Amino acid sequence: MAAVAAGNGTPREEEGPSGEAAAPPPQAPTSVPGARLSRLPLARVKALVKADPDVTLAGQEAIFILARAAELFVETIAKDAYCCAQQGKRKTLQRRDLDNAIEAVDEFAFLEERARMLEREGQREGERERIPGIQYCQLNAGFIMS
């Protein structure tokens, strides 16, 4: 049924079979002008991928997925490190917060060797501090004082 003019000359919504107003047709999602799907520059991600001698070709979809995975990784480790900073009554992340998150969360175990290497460099410069008594709480997904 087409839109029917009401008694005052203005169009009414279409009515369904039961006399109720039909739902408006779905519209395509509108995108915000200038919105990006990735927060990391894809050209930089592609350059990093090309720097690996084992990689010969990488499609645009693969580059995008790698960029998105990197974003999610940074977001996750930053949240865990921020929980550690909050335990120290701070809002600013410091290197020690990242080190504590790497040591406390099993998913970051692959970073432990790199963190130890950076720790040795930092100790030579006298900049490394630890927050004593912090453990990771899997149930709450945050750090707690022990």
Automatic annotation (TrEMBL):
Ranges of residues in domain Transcription factor CBF/NF-Y/archaeal histone: 39-102
Compartment(s) of residence: Nucleus
The keyword DNA-binding is annotated on this UniProt entry: yes
Chief location of this protein within or outside the cell: nucleus
Region (Disordered): 1-35
SUPFAM superfamilies xref list: Histone-fold (SSF47113)
Molecular function terms from GO: DNA binding; protein heterodimerization activity
Recorded GO CC terms: epsilon DNA polymerase complex
Keywords: DNA-binding, Nucleus
A Pfam family per the record: CBFD_NFYB_HMF
GO biological process: DNA-templated DNA replication
Keyword DNA-binding: yes
Quaternary assembly: Component of the DNA polymerase epsilon complex consisting of four subunits: the catalytic subunit POLE and the accessory subunits POLE2, POLE3 and POLE4. Interaction with POLE3 is a prerequisite for further binding with POLE and POLE2.
Function: Accessory component of the DNA polymerase epsilon complex. Participates in DNA repair and in chromosomal DNA replication.
Protein name, UniProt field: DNA polymerase epsilon subunit 4
Source species of the chain: Acinonyx jubatus
